[in-house]
Sequence to fold (326 residues):
Amino acid sequence: MKNDTSKFTGIKRMLLAMLCFFYITAVSAQSTVTRETVLYAVKDTTHVYLDKYVDNGVPYKGKRPVFIYVHGGGFATGSRINALQTQYCKHFAAAGFVVISIDYRLGLANNKQPDEEAVMKAVSLGYGDLIDATAFIISKANEWNIDTGKIIISGGIAGAVACLMAEYDICSGGQFSGLLPKGFNYAGVISHAGCIITRQDSLTWKKAPCPMLLMHGSVDQLVPFDTKSVEGDFYAGSNYLHNGFVKSNYPHWFYEEVGADHIVALKPLQYNFSETDEFIEQFVMNGKKAIIHTIWTDKKPDSMQDMYNVVPLYITGWDKYEVETK
Fold:
């Protein structure tokens, strides 16, 4: 395996952001993406929906791969409906994916001071619903013309936790793994500032995880970059996962933003398409067996305090699929 450590300057990031902006603008102007809302489960009288995006203007030979996006919001708020998330989904639809953006039960809604037991229950609801959504999508394989061996999951904040927890559940024989077909695993996980939370003091992978793209700010104030313990529960962040994966020789790409905080949970929705596309192409589609550690350093690291400038569409696009521009 190859361990590739690289550094990028703020100037390069700016140029990449500009290229992404013009690319996304061009794609949006020519978009033939259709969106369909589907009920995928009824849980405790709660109707849980997903949005399916398909670009029928993009020819694709054979069955299409699947890209599932799981929104953030601390398991207390958020939904599948957000203009920046829609832009993110359409990017992958334009690449030929059947893209699914899911809702899940928000276990911490209206709970302003949750204890650790409530947090763990909410996490279980979130990633359990993700696995249920995956099972539903698999059941639609023929109808939707999808490749069940190429299902990628991606999420930010709580959504990233749900993705990592779902993969850990599958690879450690967890409580929800039996809901999926025998031998199933995701083709890739893309985590924007996520972690795995367990009752144990370490992680036990009974089988190798799928390739992962782990993106995290080194001074994240909400989700641990490395580890933390809360009332005996172990929180394993991206740096901890990276170090463990290196020791076990598990293919992955660790993308570290030095000095950046929790803003990295949102930035990839707008700025990191080149890295994400490369991860999918090399690790998922081509089966690259590599370990990559990218270190991104800006003169002034981005911060949640500046999120209105960094990811304005996430704010203005709350509960909207699109935001009209004048």
The longest strand covers residues 33-43. The chain has one domain: 3-316. The mean pLDDT is 91.
